[in-house]
Design a protein that fits this description.
This protein is mainly β. It has five helices and 22 strands. A hairpin with an 8-residue loop joins strand 9 and strand 10. The longest helix has 13 residues. The termini are close together. The relative contact order is 0.13. The N terminus is likely disordered.
Length: about 290
């Protein structure tokens, strides 16, 4: 199974690589600000630089989870000595919706950066003041963050065989933590997210990366199962849309539908007040990693 060590910035065999040094970078379909955003790559994540454009400061890149597009080069740390050092360092992953980064611990002090859930910072063994965790940014700066907003990257890994029930419960809990996040095409943070961004981030935060789009693709861990066999934590697929099943005929998803517009819970049960016929009548497949 592909894991978070590679997907979120672990050791890499890539030679031409870059580390995202902005809270997130928009991954564009074409090298243009006006082009459609197809994904967002978060702080601390690694990308393979496939080709640099002749003008405009764009680079064609591929993420560790196999998504391709264009990002602005000035949002990447590309110095080899720095990227290699970053790859070797243990990491913390941001687990709260967002986390402020301080040069000096204490809420009264100015913060220097705000990172969304899923971002990576370098781990420092010392905790600092009570409730505060020391960390390092990509540029080497020592900083402080709230300890409750971080988790060691190594703790994101689960054994599917031995911890299925625990993993399913955690997937559902994580998906529901995005409730009321506004809808954003190509988004992948609590500041704005789309349907496949929600599902892929929920799995990514558990050490598993699935295909970023609303379909089941060979080479990724999700396999098709009968819809009637879906359990909490499995995925539901619709034409151009996907959701995470949470049990009792309900699913959580990010929708751009007017009147809902964000991460909500809907039902497949036609008697439920949150039933959506347009989706319930067009389920094409269910998928599971279990």
């Amino acid at each position: 199974m592909k894991n978070l060590d590679k997907a979120m910035g672990g050791m890499s065999m890539w030679k031409n690589n870059g580390i995202v040094k902005e809270p997130f970078l928009q991954l564009k379909e074409h090298p243009s600000e006006a082009s459609q955003t197809v994904d967002e790559v978060l702080y601390g994540m690694e990308v393979l630089i496939r080709e640099k454009t002749a003008k405009g400061g764009w680079a064609s890149v591929e993420t560790a989870y196999g998504y391709q597009g264009y990002v602005k080069m000035d949002g990447l740390e590309c110095r080899e000595w720095n990227t290699r050092k970053w790859q070797k360092l243990p990491k913390y992953v941001v687990t709260s919706p967002s986390a402020d980064v301080y040069e000096v611990p204490g809420y009264q002090n100015p913060y220097v950066l705000t990172l969304p859930r899923g971002s990576l910072v370098s781990a420092v063994p010392e905790e600092g003041q009570a409730g505060w965790q020391q960390a390092r940014l990509i540029d080497g700066r020592g900083v402080y963050m709230r300890k409750a907003q971080l988790r060691p990257l190594a703790e994101t890994h689960y054994s599917i065989r031995n911890e299925e029930e625990t993993l399913r419960e955690s997937l559902v809990r994580t998906a529901l933590s995005y409730l009321h996040t506004p809808y954003r095409w190509g988004g992948k943070t609590p500041w704005g997210i789309d349907c496949s961004g929600l599902c892929s981030m929920v799995y990514l935060l558990h050490g598993i990366y699935i295909y970023r789009d609303a379909s089941i693709k060979e080479g990724y861990p999700v396999k098709e199962i009968p819809v009637c066999e879906a359990k909490p934590g499995d995925l539901l697929y619709f034409p151009g849309h996907m959701a995470l099943y949470i049990g009792y005929f309900q699913y959580v998803h990010a929708t751009g539908r007017m009147g809902q517009d964000g991460v909500v819970v809907n039902s497949l049960n036609h008697t439920a007040p949150n039933y959506r016929r347009d989706l319930a009548s067009t389920v094409t497949a269910a998928g599971s990693i279990f």
